[in-house]
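Hey,

The postdoc asked me to send both predictions to you directly instead of through the lab channel. I've kept everything plain text so nothing gets mangled by the mail client. Protein one:
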Amino acid sequence: MDISQALFKTFTDMNIISSITSTLFIILLGFFLRKKNIFSDQFGKMMTKIVLSVSLPALAFNSFMAPIDDQTLKHGLAVLIFGILIYIILIFVSKLFYLGYDHDRQTVLSVLTTFGSTTFFGMPIVAAIYGPKGTMYASIFNIGYRIFLYSYAYIVMSGLKMTKKNIRQMFLNPVVLATFLGLILWIIQPYMPTLTGLNPETHKAVTVAFYRIDVTAPWLFKPLTYLASLSSPLAWLAIGSTLGEISFKSAAKNKTSWYYTAIKTIVVPAINLALLFVLTVTKILPVSQVAMATILIMMATPTAAVAASYAIGFDREAVLTSNASFISTIGAVIMVPIWIVIISLIGSAGIF
């Protein structure tokens, strides 16, 4: 398939186009409603809490209510391993982009570059485009992210040792609990007692593990599905509302924020793409196209809220962090759709 055919296929794929326009339009709607004061200054924070404590845990758990096969398990394990390795790599490599800055600013920018808003910004987009399988890979990928965000990032930004409170945050976070529970249930299902139920997609009888509630207890699975479906629109409205609170003119004056945004939304995903390509071609750690796409979208996200809160809370370049968070969010809104198109073109070329 030549480049023109790949482009045509990409730009006539209504699933991709609709997902991109949905993201942009709902973020813009949130921005407009905040500017008009229809949304209060607390709206973004309130929606963020709902998404992180209810919708995303439901989304993560539901994604594992699926059949297990050797190929999906293989790619899931590859995503888990890569998700741990890439953060180790970025912890060291990200510092190279900021060698011209003083030590404190270099440290802060390095942490902000390494950790993006994969959960709040990335997962809803992945779910909208790649469905349950993409969400599953995103949840698995986030295991490594959570480990280093609540350990390395906290220690570096605070200058303190790891605390019990932070360890508790790491493991008792609703999204983390839902991910680990779903992952364990997904892996052990071949060894569990089974029940026969009606497949909701094919409407044919199927035998599954007794806890596969998508088949055995649709009355329980359906409410979780409704909650999960809220994650994307609520997250996008919250992002737009948050953008509506900050002065673009003030943030845009900071050249470092623009440089950081380019590294975060262009260079970091490109590094991931190059590594994934090499690992897949050499068959050292091959991943599927959906897994690759999930990882790239997750890594093109703006500053992680937790990383930003570390910087602000410990008074480590608080103003720069606020400006960088704002500019990188705008950058991600622009670049994520571009990365989605690039991913589609790569898929059309049959590279992954």
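Protein two:
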Amino acid sequence: MAEISFQNVTFESAGGEAHGYLSLPESGSGPGVIVIQEWWGLTEHIRDVADRLASEGFVALAPDLYGGRVAHDAEEAGRMMKQLPEEEGARLLAGAVDYLLASDAVTSATVGATGFCMGGGFVLALAAQQGERIGAAVPFYGVGQGVPSSYEGVRAAVQGHYAEHDRGYPVEKARLQEQQIRDESGAEVEFFYYDAAHAFHNDANPSGNYNADAASLAWSRAVEFLRTKVR
């Protein structure tokens, strides 16, 4: 991994202060990408995702949607997710977009967004909310919390990564989502489906669903897509 630097940051959002984890590439500057957490919170895994993006040359910001809390089991994670109003999550993420676009370290006129599970849903909500300010939206199994009812505001190119054996978010719903985005937004849309289960990208997930082959392929596709679309 290329040498990176990281720091905890505070930024204005929704009339108050929000916090996040910022990872910078070795060069100190690059295209901006927002990394949106799973229902567990801003975990070491999500920080690692931000670091991996920084090693690829991006300025990666992972906002903390839970105010410093991290879930320790699925029951607690589900409860914390339900306690996060979708409107509040979207407002916090809007502040993250403002922060990156105002940063001297960010060289792009748009930002990318990627996220996982709940975060994947919020990726799509953010793209619908922010329009042309989002250059690329990359949801991983983003069906459920945070998913918008309409994609008419999406201007970002969308690349989705979904699991064929996802019992929580069935692949049929993902295919319907893919078609709805394409129909309503008119944006460039490509979805990939993997012979894997939910959370296949998370090598720290206690569910044990991590799939190294699927994760590696999805990650390489996502990085190249962000590199191409976020300018």
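Summary for protein two, as requested: Residues 212-229 form the longest helix (18 residues).

Thanks,
C.
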